[in-house]
Protein: Probable membrane transporter protein
Organism: Limnobacter parvus
Amino acid sequence: MTLVLLLSFAAFLTSSITAAMGVGGGVVLLALMAQVVPPALLIPLHGAAQLMSNTNRVLVQRKHINWAYIKPFALGSIVGGVLLTPLALFIPVPVGQITLGLFILLATWKPAWLSLFTWHPASSGGMTTGLSLVLGATGPLVMSVLPKSTWERQMVVGTHGMAMTIQHGIKVIAFSSLHVNLLEYWHLLLGIGLATLAGNLLGARLLARIPESKFTVVLNCLLTVLALRLVWQGVSALLSA
């Protein structure tokens, strides 16, 4: 019971962060869950928790989702999950973390160099899904390829939530095929699901109060912190190998 309450409270706090800013909560939740959840269960359970959190975010922000972007993104995600995952398995995780961290930094501060706004949504979905299944960093990676500069903040958060729901859904299906029975932990998932709904409702209220100009600045700073964390993790792993 203590574990249920602890993880539910963590899910509430982190989903509030993500609902207000679009990213950040998933990384924090993973770090917190790693302290109390067995390693073999950590990634599947975190994926299920993030699926529920992003589904709740979609319910709260459903009026702001850019469906014209999401439809081809979803198709690309399915294809990318099937085709790119075997290729991504050959990439050492530390190298992948450093590469993704640098990519997010470049996409955040010098997007014109990558011309991400010209990428077709199907290409973005395929690339990010294939890599995220193996290398993680799903939220910041997807946020970095969204054409955010032309969208209002609610559309950024709502569309990102739908994209993440698709990707975490694919991840849960992938782990289920590997005989990970998440239903055994239904009490944890129920508590986390209710907590993320409450957190998303709170985060949506906070989002509505953030001025448009400040939202972009804070989001870019948050993406930078998460990207630097990825680079540090990769470099630390390589140095300790």
Summary: Residues 212-240 form the longest helix (29 residues).
